[in-house]
Amino acid sequence: MLTAPAGYAQEINSQELIIEHNSQEGESDLAYDFFTGTLQLIVPVQANPDQGAKQPVPQLQLNRCDLGQNQYMLIESHDHAVQQFIQHYNKQLQTAESEGHKIQATVIGAYKERDGKNYLRVKSIENVKTDTSCHLMDMFP
């Protein structure tokens, strides 16, 4: 009789809990994974402020540290992890682009593809490191 290692059983139970939690919250069964990269604040262009258009809502993009240079727009789940991150790191995100500083983090999220674009439904943003990059090209001056 074959038995799974102890860590394997624990991993399955954790994944089942995540799926069960998502089902209870009304989200479809999501499979979460870890995505490491640098975070970039994307501010959409405002349509026409004279016609009463709403202010554009800043969005967060993950530039994954992989050979494919994949990019993912981060979308909220019920935990509001993305907006909390933007509020907490707002100053660093705004100066990151202009001063060449990067914010590296690991996003725990569920992948979605829509209209040829990559999205992650974010459960949490972990291991945040300011002024750090995991991109190979950033290691060369």
Concise synopsis of the structure shown:
This protein has 141 residues and is α+β, with helices and mostly antiparallel strands.
Provide an overview of this structure.
By secondary structure, the chain is of the alpha+beta class. It has one domain (30-47, 56-139): OB fold (Dihydrolipoamide Acetyltransferase, E2P), CATH 2.40.50. The chain is built from 3 helices and 5 strands; from the N terminus they run αβββααββ. The chain has a 5-stranded mixed barrel. The longest helix has 19 residues, at 6-24. Mean pLDDT is 77; it is low at 1-26.
Overall, the morphology is globular
How many strand units? 5
- Radius of gyration, taken over Cα atoms and rounded to an integer in Å: 18 Å
Largest sheet: 5 strands, mixed, barrel
The residue fraction in helices comes out at: 25-40%
> Briefly, what CATH class?
Mainly Beta
Topology as a string of helices (H) and strands (E) = HEEEHHEE
Q: Would you identify the CATH architecture?
A: Beta Barrel
Ranges with pLDDT <50 over ≥5 residues?
A: 1-26
* Overall mean pLDDT: 77
The CATH topology comes to OB fold (Dihydrolipoamide Acetyltransferase, E2P)
